[in-house]
Amino acid sequence: MTKTVRSLATARDYLSTYALLFTCLFVTHAPLLRLPYFWDEAGYYIPAARDLLLTGSLIPYTTNSNAHPPLVMLWLAFWWKFSAFTPAVTRTAMLMVAAFALLGLWRLARDAAGQAVAVATVLCTALYPVFFAQSSMAHLDMMAAAFTFWGLAMYVERRPVATIVFFALAPMAKETAIVTSMALLVWELLCPLFRVPRSSPHLPTAGQAPGEVRSQPSFCFYSSKRHALSFLLCLVPLLLWFAYHHHRTGYYLGNPYYLRYNLQATLTPLRILLALLIRLWHVLGYLNLFLLTLGALFAMTQPPLLEADGTLRPRIAISVQLAFAAVLLVNMLAESALGGAVLARYMLPVVPLVILVCVSTMRRRIRRWTWWIAITCAAFVVQLFVLPPYRIAPEDTLLYRDYVILHKLAAAELSARYPRGRVLTAWPASDELTYPFLGYVKQPLPIVRIANFSPLEIERASRATEQFDVAFLFSTKWEPPHPLFEALTFGKPLQERFFDYHEDMAPQRAADILGGRTATYLTRHQEWIALIPIEKIEDAAIPDARPDPGSIGPE
Predict the structure, then answer these.
(1) pLDDT by residue (tens digit) across 128-168?
(2) Within 13 Å of residue 9, how many CA atoms lie on the same side as its CB?
(3) Strands 470-474 and 447-450: what pairing?
(4) Would you call 463 helix, strand, or coil by DSSP?
């Protein structure tokens, strides 16, 4: 009975903590919940989840399948089914996932470093701009991070069955999450090599006879290779999903374009090296994260402090730190070699581990460590609103809100002033104006698509102005007002070669080339939109003779 009562009390504590985390997330994200969908949300995840809701098919049909596992789409479709198909429901459902991720991180940090470090780690992570911005967005990374944190917590607590369950669920949210369990598998197989015999005949340790040889404790969490090989079970659900996807589509890893962009075009040594440097920046310095890194480095120059009872302040066990290091290293290498886009959100499963180690190090060695944590949290909040002097993805801060607001205004003006006009634009605005369920238009507009707004694409469009009536241009790459390292001439060619970089043509210059005028130009924090009506001489004899909307150049 006592054990049952204790279990119920523990469950109640976890539910209370989860409710507190969710409430804090909901309140701080309340102004964002009704925003229409942004970029990849609109381009893939929302259409795929909607297809699942309407047809029950795990393979989307309104967009090309990327072979992403369906767990996040199932989660969204469930809440839409029993609530409503609105952005507010979507974002609230994702906040539930984010709260679950923070709860798992709190448990992991408490197991590894104690309650004080756990609270500080969760606070820093929740306010870290990338985590905060992604908390309400319909992407795969937050759910993958949540199951990863819980899997690591079960791993540290030496609960093998629960460990495998969580690590098997993580890649069903996002396939790349499988690298964490594979990293632990490799670590468990290799770590026995680090058990070095220690002989101290002249200075024996407590309880050790002179001349006695005693081995160092193992860094492994599992006692046998059989337990370590159980990590292979995490592969089973993912492999079954790929087999099902191949059965339905003929492809294991998505459509040919997706495979070429995310794998075949990335496996060059120079590109992998450059991506690895970007990943190092993402986990150590990005968006004021360097404050924690510098704090931990400074702390390492100081001696450990004493607790009130005279004992040294504890540190994270070396075995846990080495396991974290293995997970971090393998994730960084995998995300550097795979994936055409090098986005910061892809590192969400491992950045909180860096935060945890930094916080624990500072608590152990800096007397007023809470002040440093407070300064870091304040810097994270500031970075949500203040633009950094280097390029970022808008989805990493509240900059994405400016993008969505501008596109909503542009869509409203297009619907009001050009309800039947053919609109020249690029993805994702082409989807925003085509699918009303994304939250931008009430009725779809005819679209003529181009790849982007680079000079080459604008020149190509200028030769087919009879196919569209108005051009909708917008910033596809966010640029800071005064970027760092602007004078480095080698940076731009490398970005164009390896990271799909291009410069958007200025609206006025594009209007001159297209033979139109800039009727609307709006900007917010370096994000901008422009509407350019095309001036034409209509043939009075055949006023309705227009070609069908289509695409100009490759999509």
Answers:
(1) 999 999 999 999 999 999 999 999 999 999 999 999 999 99
(2) 6
(3) unpaired
(4) coil
